[in-house]
Specification:
Layout lengths: L6 E6 L6 E6 L16 H14 L23 H8 L8 E4 L11 E4 L1 H6 L6 E4 L2 E4 H8 L3 H10 L4 H6 L17
Antiparallel strand pairs: 1-2, 3-4, 5-6
Length: 183
């Protein structure tokens, strides 16, 4: 897009926290200029990111904009976002913030798989054993332990986290210890 074809105008949102860019054509018409990139999957990702951070009417605003998660000034334009992030490697990749407490920026974002995103969630349970700190689901993958088993051991049976993860499961064909009650 040539510089003479568009004027970028910044408008204040109602809450005056964010400045929203609008592309105007030469005559100042707010319908904007078509950049030919609206049908790319990255555009949908960018638009969703923008909406959840700036629109109080968005269903996700309470988890992003209301918590102070914002979009870098440079990323107010889709073409800059696309240049910085590149094309999405596959439909299985989504936009992920490396540091969940920081906003969306070139330095803090990546295209990640669902597993990578789930392991980067603020709701995750991080467990340290020795020098290694992993999420509960990553420990389960590493130790070949069912997530449901580890979760049951830690939250229902109240096992120590380290014991719950490092104790192998018994085969269903292995004899189990018999518990006697004194009733």
């Amino acid at each position: 897009m040539k510089e003479t074809q568009a004027i970028i105008v910044q408008e204040q949102l109602d809450d005056e926290r964010q400045i929203v860019p609008r592309l105007l054509n030469k005559s100042g018409d707010k319908r904007g200029i078509r950049h030919g990139l609206m049908h790319r999957p990255e555009y949908t990702v960018w638009k969703s990111m923008w909406t959840r951070c700036t629109n109080p009417n968005s269903i996700s605003f309470k988890y992003y904009g209301a918590l102070g998660i914002c979009v870098a000034k440079e990323w107010r334009r889709f073409d800059v976002f696309l240049r910085d992030m590149g094309s999405r490697p596959s439909s299985r990749r989504t936009l992920d913030r490396i540091n969940g407490k920081a906003g969306y920026s070139k330095e803090n974002c990546r295209w990640a798989t669902r597993v990578e995103q789930n392991n980067n969630s603020r709701k995750n349970k991080i467990i340290s054993i020795g020098e290694t700190s992993l999420s509960l689901s990553n420990w389960c993958r590493k130790m070949n332990l069912k997530y449901a088993t580890a979760k049951w051991r830690i939250y229902k049976a109240k096992w120590n986290e380290q014991v719950a993860i490092l104790t192998p499961t018994q085969s269903k064909y292995e004899p189990r210890p018999i518990a006697y009650s004194n009733k």
